[in-house]
Write a structure and sequence with these properties.
The complex is a heterodimer of chains A (about 250) and B (about 290). Chain A starts with 7 loop residues before the first strand and ends in an 8-residue tail after the last helix. In chain A, the strands form two sheets. A six-stranded mixed sheet of chain A has the order 6-7-8-3-9-10, sandwiched between helices. Chain A has about 250 residues and is of the alpha/beta class. Chain A has ten helices and ten strands. With about 290 residues, chain B is an all-alpha fold. Chain B has a single domain, classed as ABC transporter involved in vitamin B12 uptake, BtuC (Orthogonal Bundle). Classes of the chains: A alpha/beta (about 250), B mainly alpha (about 290).
């Protein structure tokens, strides 16, 4: 970690659904313009962590500092306004609404200082030309890959400085995965800070600078992407299915 | 001919009020998923408030009516904040706020009876009791007011839902609450606004109705039933459904009253009969639901 304070610093975060604690005293940090992967098996609490950072989970304690401000007591809409955008697990696009309406809703908190809505449309359509072609179409009629592009484009409409991507490649054809990865590389070069939640270890380590491995609500390993990628024990240790098959 | 035209006017008038009541349900239901049976009592409260602002304080009609509606809108927003929000934020099932609001019906009604008594209170109509001559028929002034105001209100709400980004935001909250929050939509504001809006719309129906039948603490229930019937008949989900449902309901009711050989007391049962018929045969209403996947 460099001497500059990280863009996102999660410290001793505990969060869960109602009385059930899913994340227990977790800490991690993401530097400005860095891409960090969050790896871990199903049920490790990765999505819960994303929701806790985004503020949609109300029962949470600890600190979540973003750009020097603690987000822990802020509602989701205030967190979006600060520049954190989320592409949630399962895309969660507004299927009955048009592509354009979905994108427009993504910009509902666009601060005037971060650009005008017209410019946002242009930049999203430049990244995903297919969305421009289908702008009047109902979002639910798009293909899976296009829906994922819409979910990412929608998040980008708020002109975020950091984006949290929760398993964006789930169920997509390899060709689409490559296409979306290429777009994410463009975004990184433009200076976007990325936290990528993934189960596909190899793909995530290829894309990111560093990675955390999460298991049962805690960080069990961290390191540079290169170091983790070179560790043959990684997948065997942390991704083996629990005895008794998938649960 | 004259007879039919007069009948048409009375259908438009009653249909306008029923459509407004259906709309009051819809405005709360669409973003929150809550069927709020307190809309009838909101109409009652607004018509009593108009007794105060117009009858007692002698304010000019428009400021008086607006003040009455602002009062009931504030009550709507406060009710959401005090009774609904704490439940939703603790993760209660949607039935909990529905039952709480059903309880609030009694609270509102008894509060209205305590504050304004149980007798009928006259409310002055905005343009008097005159008639407008329109070709072969003369339309009662208050009918014209009801038709015009409910038309403007319905058109305005339609434009809000279909043409503004905040209207789309209401729909987004209905489709996926969590995703809507992630977009930056302020969920608390949407809920408070939907209750305030629903109360103001139901209140408009009450204020329009009051000069015709006078304000009474039990006037809410029939309005709530007719609004709900109109909502079911038209189809839950869209403003067009409220309008269509309100008009169909009013047409059936008025035609039965005029032509069917049954005592007029039985005509009250027509909306219920029609609603049951729709629930059995076409539960999605005349206009199918939209906005849910």
């Amino acid at each position: 970690m460099s001497a500059a304070p990280p863009m996102l610093a999660v410290e001793n975060l505990t969060a869960g659904h109602g009385p059930v604690t899913v994340i227990d005293g977790l800490s991690l940090a993401v530097g400005a313009r860095e891409a960090v992967a969050l790896l871990g098996p199903n049920g490790a609490g990765k999505s819960t962590l994303v929701m806790a950072i985004a503020g949609t989970l109300r029962s949470r304690t600890g600190r979540v500092d973003f750009a020097g401000r603690n987000l822990i007591d802020l509602p989701p809409h205030a967190i979006v306004a600060m520049g954190v955008a989320v592409v949630p697990e399962g895309r969660r696009i507004f299927a009955p609404l048009s592509v354009l309406d979905n994108l427009h809703l993504g910009a509902i908190r666009l601060p005037a200082a971060r650009g005008r809505i017209g410019e946002r449309y242009e930049s999203v359509f430049a990244l995903f030309p297919r969305l421009a072609e289908r702008r009047q179409q109902r979002a639910g009629t798009l293909s899976g890959g296009e829906q994922q592009m819409l979910a990412i484009g929608r998040a980008l409409m708020s002109a975020p400085t950091m984006i949290l991507l929760d398993e964006p490649f789930l169920g997509l054809a390899p060709k689409i995965v490559d296409e979306i990865l290429a777009t994410l590389h463009v975004l990184r070069r433009a200076g976007l800070t990325v936290l990528l939640v993934e189960q596909k270890t190899e793909l995530a380590l290829n894309f990111c600078d560093r990675a955390y491995v999460m298991q049962k609500g805690r960080i069990v390993r961290e390191g540079s992407a290169a170091a983790l990628a070179g560790d043959p024990a990684l997948s065997a240790d942390y991704f083996a299915l629990p005895a008794g098959g998938p649960g | 001919m004259t007879d039919l035209l007069e009948l048409a006017v009375s259908i438009l008038e009653a249909g306008g009020i029923y459509a407004l009541m259906a709309l009051a349900y819809l405005v709360v239901l669409r973003p929150t998923g809550i069927i709020n049976f307190a809309v009838g009592e909101w109409a009652t409260l607004a018509s009593f408030f108009s007794v105060a602002t117009l009858g007692w304080w002698n304010l000019p009609y428009i400021p008086g009516a607006v003040l009455a509606l602002a009062g009931v809108a504030a009550i709507g927003a406060l009710t959401e904040q005090a009774t609904v929000r704490p439940m939703i934020e603790r993760g209660a099932p949607i039935l909990t706020p529905i039952l709480i609001l059903l309880g609030m019906v009694v609270v509102y009604r008894e509060a209205a009876a305590l504050g304004f008594g149980t007798q009928n209170l006259r409310v002055p109509p905005p343009l008097g009791f005159g008639r407008i001559d329109l070709g072969p028929i003369a339309i009662p002034m208050q009918s014209a007011v009801v038709i015009a105001v409910s038309g403007i209100m319905l058109a305005g709400t339609w434009a809000f839902f279909e043409r503004t980004i905040w209207g789309k935001a209401f729909q987004a909250v209905a489709i996926d609450r969590v995703a809507a929050g992630l977009m930056g939509i302020n969920l608390r504001l949407v809920a408070a606004f939907s209750f305030a809006g629903g109360a103001a719309i139901a209140g408009t129906a009450g204020v329009l109705q009051a000069p015709l039948t006078s304000a009474h603490y039990l006037m809410g229930l029939p309005l709530a039933i007719k609004g709900f019937s109109a909502l079911v008949i038209g189809g839950v989900g869209r403003v067009e459904g409220c309008i269509l449902g309100g008009l169909v309901l009013a047409a059936c009711e008025r035609l039965v009253m005029r032509y069917a050989p049954i005592p007029s007391g039985f005509a009250i049962g027509v909306p219920l009969l029609l609603m049951i018929l729709f629930l059995l045969v076409r539960p999605t209403g005349l206009i199918g639901a939209r906005g849910r996947t």
